[in-house]
Each structure stands twice: as structure tokens, then as C-alpha cells.
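Late entry, written up from scratch paper. The run itself happened at the end of the previous shift, but nothing got recorded in the book at the time, so transcribing now.
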Amino acid sequence: MSDLLNIDYDIVEETINILNIHVSMDAPFNEDGENNLFHILSDENSLNPEAGLIMNSLQMEVERTLARLTEREAEVLRYNFGIKGNMAQSLAEIGLKLGLTRERVRQIKIAALKKLRSRKHSKHTLREYISN
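Output as recorded:
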């Protein structure tokens, strides 16, 4: 390989040996043991994997719950609560978007929430996500 790369054999051998070194993420850098790779490489601005999984699971559960409603009821709740990329909107704004009066949107919202609270629809609940 050193001939092919036109590099000294010792440099190639040293490079290959470096690749076989395993470093623990929580092994300390110095004698006081305060710093390790995990602390240096972690990105405090990124979402931790567990939170990402919980968020994805919550989104799936919300959509599964909304699927029990009529399309119009689900649409009103999505707009009103800002679900699935929508900004939370007032009843009047939703009415304009759907060609309904504010009062009719309010009635649809109340009916949808009542359905979701009923025993019939309480089998798959979102309550476990409230504490998270």
C-alpha cells in the first residue's frame, strides 16, 4: 500500500495501528477525571435521542387519536391547537379558511373534544405524555 500511495511504509503502518485504538467516551482526559469525550463532544443545542423518540411517538399518537374523528373535526382541532405544522389559529381564522362561521367552528371543536373525552375514544390516551 505504501508503494501505491507513494508514502513511507512506517507512516502507513502507524496510521493503520491508530485506527485500531478504541477510546471510551467516558474515560477521563486528565487525573482529576472531570472532563471526558462525552462532555466535550455533546451538543447541548441538539435534541437528545430520547426526547426525539418521545416527540415522534406523541405526534403519531395525536394523529391516531385525531383519526377517530371526522375529517372536519380533526382539521378544526389541528388548526386550533397548531398541530402538524400549523400555527394555532383563532376560531374566526379557521372559519375563514374552511368557509364556516366562527360559531360553527366552535360547535365542531366542542363536539370533537367531547368525542375524544368519551369512554368510547379513551382506549388510546395521550395522558401519559402530560408529565413528559
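The first helix runs from residue 2 to 5.
(Scratch paper discarded after transcription.)
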